[in-house]
Amino acid sequence: MLPSALARLSGQLIVSVQADDGSPLRDTSHILALGRAALLGGAAGLRLRSAPDIAALRAVTGVPIIGLTKQTHPGTEVYITATPEEVREVAAAGADIVAFDATDLPRPFTVAELVRAAHDAGALAMADISTLEEARAAYAAGADIVGTTMSGYTPHSPQQTGPDFALMAALRAAKLPFIAEGRLNTPELARQALDLGALAVVVGSAITRPDHVTRWFAQALHGSSGEQM
Ligand SMILES: CC(=O)N[C@H](C=O)[C@@H](O)[C@H](O)[C@H](O)COP(=O)(O)O
Predict the structure, then answer these.
(1) Looking at ligand 1, which residue's alpha carbon is closest to its atom 14?
(2) Is this prediction's ipTM beyond 0.90?
(3) How far apart are CA 2 and CA 93, in angstroms?
(4) Could you give the residue ranges of the DSSP H alpha helices within the chain?
(5) pTM
(6) Cα 210 to ligand 1 centroid, rounded to whole Å
């Protein structure tokens, strides 16, 4: 049986509400407004970066929250919730599920250590992976769910502009439950991921990063990337 936060997300849309560093939307008050707009539109869950953003949305909604931090650490390129301390911070802010990097890149802490920190803090553990092998390893280390989040963002995964449907199909064939995430930029692609067996679908940039969406349009019109910031 699925743990309750995952059961509530089954078949549902999760909206990732994150602004990049330097974005005019980075402030928590803007993230709160974007998150509320996503909830109004029917998001059944939220994926949020940073304790202040998580706490702000926890105060206004009971939907499952996937929380994470994004921080660099010396000697590693792993930046999504890379330490047990960050896992605890995210859980304490009100996340039901803590997402963390579970790729094969050199890392400061093992996947098992991050899973344990999440469970000890009363949260579920979501392993952000980029390959089938990483998914197997994450489940062996005790993860509750994996997400296809990191495909395209590690040197050893396919670099592509669209979603990694091949990885989703491989996860399904291996009977490994997964949340689909990454470049699901249209309702049709999101639906396709669900049809490929995803437990739930995370959509971020296409809904909550107007700067990215503007760039897609600007590039399509005249190959320009818009105003340089
Ligand atoms: C690779 C990485 O750092 N992904 C991050 C993970 O939390 C977010 O920046 C993405 O927006 C999220 O994964 C959703 O994906 P998309 O924005 O493509 O719908």
Answers:
(1) 204
(2) yes
(3) 23
(4) 4-9, 28-40, 51-58, 84-92, 111-120, 132-140, 165-173, 187-195, 205-208, 210-222
(5) 0.96
(6) 14
Tokens (6 digits) for 39? 């909830």
**How remote is the CA of residue 153 from the centroid of ligand 1, in Å?**
10
Pocket of ligand 1 (CB under 6 A): 16, 18, 68, 149-150, 153, 181-184, 202-205
CA–centroid distance, 120 to ligand 1, in Å, is: 26
69-93 pLDDT tens trace: 999 999 999 999 999 999 999 999 9
What is the C-alpha to C-alpha distance for residues 216 and 56, in angstroms, rounded to an integer? 30
Measure 222 CA to ligand 1 centroid, in angstroms: 26
Tokens of 141: 């280390």
Average pLDDT over residues 131-149: 98
Asked if 109 contacts 125 with a C-beta cutoff of 8 angstroms, the reply is no
The class (CATH top level) of 7-222 is alpha beta
Ligand 1: which atom is nearest the Cα of residue 49? 7
